[in-house]
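Before the break, one more example. Copy the sequence into your notebook; we will annotate it together after we see the structure.
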Amino acid sequence: MSDLEVDYADMSKTADAFRAVATDLGPARLSGLPKGAGSYGYAYLAGAVDQVVSAFNERHDAVVEGTKGVGTTIDSCRLAYQAADAIAEANLGKLLGRLFGVGPR
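Here is what the structure looks like once it is written out:
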């Protein structure tokens, strides 16, 4: 059996942090940068800048959505853990009631 330790506040804080990063990244775009070898001293560096700009902008939306998705997944897990805890607590209360005549039955 494995040990499962969950801190709901930590999970919520982490989910919020992922969503905040996604919000901050949302408007971040690389655009309006100078182009051409004359801007960077030589053609190789200009080409590298163009490649990085293109790659960043092509993957931007996926990174933002993926980051948001991590926050959503963590929240979903937290809610599932809380629901399972509530069910276990209720069932244990019923068991105690039946065994010892205390609490709900």
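The mean pLDDT is 90. Residues 43-100 form the longest helix (58 residues). Try to locate both features in your own notes.
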